[in-house]
Amino acid sequence: ERVHDEKGHRLSPLPSKTAMPLDRRANHVSAFLWFFPVTCLTMVQCFPPSVSKIDSEGFEVFMEGAGGDEALVKELMYYCKRGMDSQDNGKAHYCEGLRTRGFDKFVRSVSKQMPQYKDTVEDIDEWERRCRRRADAPPTCVALSYFMLPIDFRSMHESVKDNSCKNSDAPEAHNQTEKQKKNMEFLALTVETHTASLKHCSLIRTASASGVEFEVLGTHYRGVMGHTAKINLLKNRINLIPASKRKNTLLLFTDSRDVIVQASSDFIINGFLRSGVKVLFNAEGNCYPYSYFPLHMMLGDNTHSIPHKAEGRFNGYHICGKLFADTPGRPGSPRWLNSGAFVGYADAVLEILEAIQNAPTWFIERYPGSDQGFFMQAYLSQKFGIGIDTCSHIFTSIATHDDYSEHHPWGDMFLYAHGPHRRNWNVLYAAEKKKDQESEKTAPYGNFSLVWRNKATGKVAPIIHLNGQIKAYFSPNKVKRHRMRPEFHIFVDGPCSVVKRFEATMFVAGSHVVPGTQAWENRVAAYELARFHDVEGDSDLEYDALLEQCHQGWEILADACSFANETVQHMKNAKTSGLGFFLEFSPLRMEPRIDVKAHVQLAKATFAATSAIEGGPTEYLNLIEGRKMYLMGRSQKLIQKGAEEVIDHVVSEAHQKALAPFYFYFIALPVAFVASILTRSRHIVSVARRFATSRFFRAHVLKIRAS
After folding, report:
1. Which tens digits make up the pLDDT trace of 433-484?
2. Among 433, 485, 660, 672, whose Cα sits 20 to 30 Å from the Cα of 330?
């Protein structure tokens, strides 16, 4: 067939029943030759590459737990890294790799230990559904962490089976401790790379006043401080200790920005030696990260949601509820590991750190559940002699779990009724500390005016970790600046952070300077002038220079940052300390919809009522029907009404009990008799009782009695 005419114009091909023309066959062959490589490239993108081409540096640490299957480990590493790398762009690849041989081996290994949860653990469809809803880490990374450090799900750690918090002041225990202390050395470490921020100064100043000298790691470090750098700094410092001395060197490590020290190293050493473990971690009231998917591995009766009631929280989770010591008689007390503070023998700490050092850098940096996830997994593995200070002999953690959060949209009357009774506000109370000649020798920068005691133990807490919600109330992520009074902005962005306010109160024992006044602003301005301005950015400062830097202008600022003197008086009483902390830290105080005086008056009146009424906050809310009341900016009448009802009820409660028969026989019964005639009811007595206990009747009786 001719394709072109004599002038070169293309002709329409004629239909033909013969074989395909040569020109058209050539075009089809050419198209196929182009299609084949493009198809191959597409399939390479759609399917994972050969495991031999995966960057699998450090895969050896997972081999033993995976049964020595190298291909299986490398495949899991590919999907884990792919999921971690996608964290910044919507977690698109978080849930990949759940149908691989490696993940199948992981879930079967877990269900073999816990056959009662086999149906949920081995349900890959359920893993995928939950992962798409919310996952704190790629499930494939959780599988890798399990292969690196297997967990024994079947039994509780031996060191916590007896959690009766026995008296550690027995003479025989004291004598044994003194023998162990003879050849022991003490080393306190923390990590801080941005020393110019002065955020570490509360730790340095309070430790110095207690006679403890911290060695600050990371002042020479340049770069992003991730888990890898933190672990390496700590490990390198321990390696500087001669191997022969590590067994007798007691190492204390704490976070640098939210910890206060208020006792000497002797208290810390004594508390540790009586624990009988190799490494003792701080306890907290939140089971993070093993209360969240995928780390809880769906081991439990109800792993969909965390119960609101503090007494039953996490008990439905097998790991959180069964593998950590309970606190009988102390519901809501801290019982789970917190990695922000720990103390232990240097060789034991080094052994824990070496368990992860050969893992890939990218895996350590984004370890499932952060470094706390790693230390909790080390505890659950039962290999390192780790214990948790659930009895608060050394560490006291502020964060506990409560039945509600003040950041949620509860009614204001609900918050005033329950607020001072929250566990979060009832961990500590203030106690005056007498100065003596001996203590002045170990306190070159002055002793404390008061210290913080643990309510549960009644003893001074050597180390206080201000973790969790108490910092969140002044966190820029939680507090919206447009909803805050201007005078409280310094608590969010300025030098008076939550930790510094605790510390300042320890030194000055309360302040009469009111935030927002001219006297208060003058002190803050004077502090800014006295600050250590010779350092630009970070500097390589030794301990003495760091201490000097932290003390520049601190005496000026302490009086401005301290809690109010009236608040401290409440904090000094163990029964009313919750009210004191509520007055200082409740978000209701910072919001402009209610003035500060009204906030204080209503909080005090409500606390008095809820403490006096037998049913507590719940009965009080039923009395005034204030569960859903909101105190908006112009509702001063509602504030007055609430306060009046509270005071009237407290004053008249005893009289009401004494005069109850009079009200019943001479008022309620006649009225009920008339009502029963009108309604043709024979239950006169029950109607009378119902009327006598009604809010309408009681409100009128209160008015008559008040007059």
Report:
1. 754 434 434 333 347 888 999 988 888 889 999 887 666 666 655 555 556 7
2. 433
Residue 402 buriedness (CB in 10 A; 0-12 / 13-18 / 19+): buried
pLDDT digits (tens, 9 = 90+) for 384-419: 999 999 888 899 988 777 766 666 656 778 888 888
Distance CA 335, CA 327 (A): 7
What residues pair up with 188 in beta bridges, in sequence order? 214, 252
Mean pLDDT of the chain: 76
Q: CA dist 341 to 201, 282, 336, 338, 701, Å?
A: 17, 5, 13, 7, 57
How far CA 547 is from CA of 209, 445, 635, in Å, comes to 11, 10, 49
Calpha distance 640→194 (Å, rounded): 49
Q: Are 548 and 515 in contact (CB under 8 A)?
A: no
Give pLDDT tens digits for 309-321: 777 778 888 999 8
Nearest-10 crossing angle of helices 227-239, 370-380: 60
How far, in Å, CA of 332 to CA of 404, rounded? Answer: 13
pLDDT of residue 539: 44
pTM of the model: 0.79
Q: Which residue has the tokens 């600022």?
A: 557
Residue 27 identity: N
CA count, 13 A, side-chain hemisphere, 566: 11
Peptide bond between residue 289 and the one before it cis (omega within 30 degrees of 0): yes
> Which DSSP helix (H) or strand (E) runs through 428?
strand 428-432
Q: Please state, in angstroms and rounded to a whole number, the distance separating the CA atoms of residues 501 and 330.
A: 28
Tell me the C-alpha distance between 560 and 526, whole Å.
Answer: 11
400: which 2 tokens? 């506990």
Q: Which helix (H) or strand (E) holds 202?
A: helix 201-209
pLDDT for position 635: 45
* CA angle centred on 469, ends 463 and 475, rounded to 5°: 105
SS3 state at 254: strand
DSSP 666: I
The DSSP bridge partners found for residue 464 are 260, 396
Q: Which residue has the tokens 């100043």?
A: 205
Q: Which residues contact 661 (CB under 8 A, 6 or more apart)?
A: none
